[in-house]
Design brief:
Blueprint: H1 2-22, H2 24-38, H3 47-81, H4 90-113, E1 125-131, H5 135-156, E2 159-167, E3 173-181, H6 185-189, E4 194-201, E5 210-221, E6 235-240, H7 248-251, E7 256-261, E8 266-270, H8 276-297, H9 308-311, E9 320-323, E10 329-332, E11 338-339, H10 342-346, H11 351-362
Helix pairs in contact: 1-3, 1-4, 2-3, 3-4
Length: 363
């Protein structure tokens, strides 16, 4: 019981420190102001503005309620340690041990979110996968990564919605994109952005040789167009005829668009929507998300500082390796965190990798 009491005493101190740092009373005042705005007549007349206010209020409400509940749970467990005798009530003691472990896990989860102080960390995200060097193995690896991240999102209780997907000729995918709907989705996922490497015995090679393949994971914040400004003179538009599925209007009109942002050299192509206007709107939204991600990556004050050198080398050094042969290991090359539990990682168990990246980002 003494060990349990010591763990709870430490948990109480850490929780109180975090609650003080968060300044919950100030957050409650902000929430009250937002809720007052939401109750005003005509609030939903401006849908985009109303949705932003509603999201901000929901985020604040979750933070306040989660930390208050954690503090309440810790106090309850401390009181239970004085009421349970392990010798006479082993079942209750076992339940207490389990509850303390779960409460520690909950504290760790909430505490990790304190590292997410970026202006877009609480946003939802768009995650994309692109097969790189390695032929069919790379296409298969891109699909493996897609499954891994979709499983991770499922574990976190986030919803995912497919935006587009392009299958490869033999197996796997050329590319795919998904919207990730969940609080702090971008904050958790943004460090997963980069090149991933796979080493294994190729199932597509009759010689049974060991092959290395690469795939790119791209993480963008889901942002409103109005959140940042891009100069019109910096944009060049090209229109062309879209291909693929989507109905007759997609294939018989110049509805697809290609956007080129001159200062950064970023090129965005969009042909998923039915009309040219819709594709232009989506392309501009994607450009702004890419600029925000680059601004954060390079620690720039504004997006206007982004130039071509910031967008180069997207296929440069890999951030993580997945080795299936001759031994089993997944290693992150930025934090040096590694594990031999490859199957668990590929099934979406990414918490330790993501937490290591978040902590190293502020250390």
């Amino acid at each position: 019981m003494q060990e349990i009491k010591e763990r709870l005493a430490l948990l109480k101190v850490e929780t109180e420190k975090s609650v003080k740092h968060l300044n919950l009373p100030a957050k409650e005042k902000i929430l009250n102001k937002l809720e007052f705005k939401m109750s005003a007549e005509g609030f939903w007349d401006d849908q985009k503005h109303a949705q932003k206010i509603s999201r901000d209020a929901g985020h604040l409400r979750n933070v306040i309620e989660d930390w208050k509940q954690l503090a309440h749970d810790v106090q309850n467990l401390i009181e239970l340690t004085e009421m349970i005798d392990p010798a006479t009530d082993p079942e209750s003691f076992e339940q207490l041990q389990n509850d303390v472990t779960e409460t520690e896990k909950n504290h760790n989860k909430l505490n990790i979110e304190l590292y997410m102080a970026g202006p877009y960390d609480k946003n939802e995200a768009v995650i994309s996968f692109h097969a790189g060097t390695g032929g069919t193995d790379a296409a298969d690896f891109a699909e493996m990564l897609m499954r891994m991240y979709l499983r991770y999102c499922e574990h976190r209780g986030w919803k995912t919605r497919q935006i587009d997907q392009s299958p490869a000729a033999e197996a796997g995918i050329k590319s795919a994109s998904f919207k990730v709907e969940g609080s702090f989705a971008y904050g958790y996922l943004k460090h997963e952005n980069g090149v991933h490497r796979l080493v294994r015995i190729s199932p597509f090679n009759s010689g049974g040789t060991r092959e290395t393949s690469f795939a790119l994971v791209e993480i963008l914040p889901d942002v409103e167009e109005s959140e940042i400004e891009v100069k019109e003179e910096d944009i060049k538009w090209d229109v062309f005829r879209a291909g693929g599925a989507g109905g007759q209007s997609v294939n018989t009109a110049d509805s697809a668009v290609r956007l080129t942002h001159s200062p950064s050299g970023i090129v965005v192509t969009c042909q998923n929507e039915r009309s040219q206007l819709q594709n232009k709107q989506q392309a501009m939204k994607t450009l702004k998300a890419k600029l925000i991600a680059l601004q954060e990556k390079h620690h720039l004050d504004t997006i206007h500082e982004i130039r071509g050198e910031h967008t180069q080398h997207s296929w440069g050094n890999q951030i993580r390796s997945y080795v299936l042969h001759p031994y089993q290991m997944v290693k992150d090359h930025r934090t040096n965190f590694e594990t031999n539990q490859v199957d668990k990682v590929l099934d979406g168990d990414l918490d330790e990798f993501i937490e290591a990246s978040l902590r190293s980002d502020v250390s």
